[in-house]
Amino acid sequence: MSMIFRGAMGPASQSLVLFIVFCFITTGTVSQNSHLNVTILSSKPTFGIVGQPKTILCQVSGTVLTTVTWYFNGTRLSISSKYSWTQRLVGGRADLTISVLLKSDSGLYNCSVRNDAVTVSESTILSVEEILHVTVHSGTETGIVGQVKTLRCNVAGMPITSVQWSVNNNTLVNNEMKYYWDTSSTPNLYFESLTIADTGMYTCSATNHAGTDFASINLSVVATPMVTIKNSRDLSVNEGGNVLISCAITDTTTIDSLQWYFNNKFLYHSDPHYFWSCINGMKVPFDGSLRIYNVTPQDTGTYRCQATNIAGASEDSIHLKIVPKANGNAVELISVKEIGLIVLGSLLAICIIVIIILACCLRRKKERKKTTTRMESSMISHDQS
Ligand SMILES: *[C@@H]1O[C@H](CO)[C@@H](O)[C@H](O)[C@H]1NC(C)=O
Ligand SMILES: *[C@@H]1O[C@H](CO)[C@@H](O)[C@H](O)[C@H]1NC(C)=O
Ligand SMILES: *[C@@H]1O[C@H](CO)[C@@H](O)[C@H](O)[C@H]1NC(C)=O
Ligand SMILES: *[C@@H]1O[C@H](CO)[C@@H](O)[C@H](O)[C@H]1NC(C)=O
Ligand SMILES: *[C@@H]1O[C@H](CO)[C@@H](O)[C@H](O)[C@H]1NC(C)=O
């Protein structure tokens, strides 16, 4: 075969082969010299923060002098106070630095490198984000058991990658039966029906590449107070003593007012006859018990304890009986009816006595008359004889 090949080759053919070999070697050398590789080292996509500088890292590996051009959304950039990079280099870094980012700097950045032989490029998307600012409507909120409730939260800044609510540092799951929130710049938290267990510190947080911001609300859920008078139902006290009517109230910290009534009449704190803790407007632990000093029979009646908070009011009552002193004051204790009866009885007795005396007098008078008649008749008979 080699003999056939050699035999077929003339002098012209031999020079063509030599030329091809020469060309191959020459081209190989050129491509080796102008070998270019451009790599954007920044993460893709890359993120920046409004108002801050940003550098997009671009690595060039080349062996001859290379010209670097940067493009933004297809438009060629020029070096200025805003943009800077090394325009001519033999391999190395052609990083683009943007001095102060604006929201409008978001877009496609293209690092293009060229030498005498080739042009290569690579691009990345830059997203410029604002620092988020989370605010809540109010730092403390109160809710009532069984009612709906909204905790208001507002997020300023764009874009918002995620929003999250948590209670006492435990993250909540959105769109549960119990509560849900809008995934927007107003991620208000909605409760379908509050329970006492919902009391806690709620934190609204929003995140993007610029960071996370949050704000908290302390929610307290209040139920109608439970009022219970602890004394035995038939409370009886001796006149002159002191009485303690013990009134127990659940969750005293939520109570706005506590009021005592006697036979449905408002009792006044200023009345020194009574004493109970005055807590109007003051959310402090207190004792709801009523003390009555030096009781008299006039204190007999119904006592009612009423506690109020934002959820409502509840009350309990008790009947108090004062046992009068048995001695000196007995007369006071006799009723008008009894006095009437005594007077009537006395009058009756006097009448009877008078009647008896009269009857006696009458009888004696009759007897004397009889004796006189007898004497007269005997005298007459004596005269006759
Ligand atoms: C280009 O450069 C990068 C970074 O140095 C390297 O990982 C990659 O392998 C190079 N590619 C080629 C084709 O040389
Ligand atoms: C650049 O392109 C992006 C889309 O890739 C676009 O959202 C943005 O508005 C463009 N910016 C300018 C200044 O043209
Ligand atoms: C970079 O820009 C140049 C010039 O507009 C274009 O030819 C090239 O395709 C772009 N490269 C990339 C990766 O977008
Ligand atoms: C909410 O409660 C926490 C812990 O009890 C407390 O540190 C924080 O100051 C409270 N915040 C407000 C706004 O009252
Ligand atoms: C909640 O977490 C933050 C940060 O992790 C911590 O500083 C704070 O003390 C925690 N609060 C509670 C109530 O656990």
TrEMBL record:
SUPFAM superfamilies: Immunoglobulin (SSF48726). Residues 1-31 form the signal peptide. Gene3D superfamilies: Immunoglobulins (2.60.40.10). Pfam families: I-set (PF07679), Ig_3 (PF13927). The chain crosses the membrane at residues 339-362. Keywords: Disulfide bond, Immunoglobulin domain, Membrane, Repeat, Signal, Transmembrane, Transmembrane helix. Residues 51-127, 146-220, 225-321 form the Ig-like domain. InterPro entries: Ig-like_dom (IPR007110), Ig-like_dom_sf (IPR036179), Ig-like_fold (IPR013783), Ig_I-set (IPR013098), Ig_sub (IPR003599), Ig_sub2 (IPR003598), Striated_Muscle_Regulatory (IPR050964). This is Ig-like domain-containing protein. It comes from Potamilus streckersoni.
